[in-house]
Amino acid sequence: MKKNCALKWGTLMVVSYFILSCHDKLATEQPNNFAEKSNLRLSSEAGAVELNYETETTRRTEITSFGLTKASASDVIYSAPVVVRSAVKMKIMPDGSLESESVELVPSNTAMLAKHKSLPDPNGRYFKRVIKGNFMEIFDRNGRSKGQQNMNTPNMKAMLDEIKAAKAKSEKNPEQAMNNVVGFGASTILEMAQSKNAQIKDRGKNVKEVTLEIDEPTSQSVNSFRMSYVLDIEHNRILSGKLLNKKTGELLNQTVYLYRVAPETGKQVISRVYSVDFYDDKVTSRKEKTTTVTEYKSFEFIDNLN
């Protein structure tokens, strides 16, 4: 699937998902996994396209079956809810390079978190993460660098051309073009489905269901997936999605997208994403379900393209 994500669909989706996934994963990295420090900073130059937003992500993993494994104290910690709130500034520069800064904020949804005392972190808590070029650097709350790590960030020059084309097609409805840019646009998926002669069904007025089949080669075999999306064609939005194992029919992920009207602009923007991931270890029969709710706040899209 990753190989196919290099196509047009993945190029657009990477804007909204790449940064968030990197920040979440690196939030748990230890300092000794990072190399030298260089105090990365965002450029003062305006980006060709900029995204500024806040997200609050709540994630909880439930062990639905232990299978051959035994419950342990670490499972209690593993299953505890995690709440991460971040303010993200992201720029795609005119040459297609990516820059991003994510600053950790105090979560507003803390009612479900366990109340306990912990010893001070001798390494200092990670507070800010900066991506520039092919590097990510993390900083603690006092502004001290904790180190840097290589990142294989894609060049997005081709995507800037996609944005220009989307703007030209959607001059009468710029919010449709923006949905394409930030990865929640239905027209991109529909075009891919049509080019692949994929299954397309009507699900109501201006609503379609698209099913795509994707093969992901690995060193030992080929994993086959079936991706299904429900699309709001009129407003160019993804309403929901499913990812299944093509061979077994096993549900791997189910996601629902909710939108709102921004009072500042009157345009529809992404509001909340509900996602459930299912994991089944074929060796131990251990099964897990991870529920993730991501709320987008203060979503701002700045278009500096001529």
What would your notes on this structure say?
- By secondary structure, the protein is α+β, with helices and mostly antiparallel strands.
- The protein has one domain.
- Helix content is 19%, strand content 43%.
- A 13-stranded antiparallel beta sheet has the order 6-5-4-3-2-1-13-12-11-10-9-8-7, covered by helices on one side.
- A hairpin with a 2-residue loop joins strand 4 (126-132) and strand 5 (135-140).
- It is globular, with a radius of gyration of 20 Å.
Sum up the structure in keywords.
306 residues, alpha+beta, 13-stranded antiparallel β-sheet, 5 helices, 19% helix
SSE blueprint:
Blueprint: H1 8-26, E1 49-65, H2 73-78, E2 82-92, E3 98-105, E4 126-132, E5 135-140, E6 145-150, H3 157-169, H4 174-182, H5 186-195, E7 199-204, E8 207-217, E9 222-232, E10 237-245, E11 251-261, E12 268-280, E13 287-303
Helix pairs in contact: 3-4
Number of E-type strands = 13
Task: Return Rg in Å.
Answer: 20 Å
What best-fitting shape do the alpha-carbon axes yield?
Answer: globular
For the residues shown, what is the average pLDDT? 76
* Category by helix and strand content: alpha+beta
Task: Give the total of domains.
Answer: 1
Q: Give the SSE order as H and E letters.
A: HEHEEEEEHHHEEEEEEE
Q: How much helix, percentage-wise, in residues?
A: 10-25%
Straight-line N-to-C gap: 34 Å
Give the biggest sheet: 13 strands, antiparallel
Low-confidence stretches: 1-18, 25-34
What's the tally of helices?
5
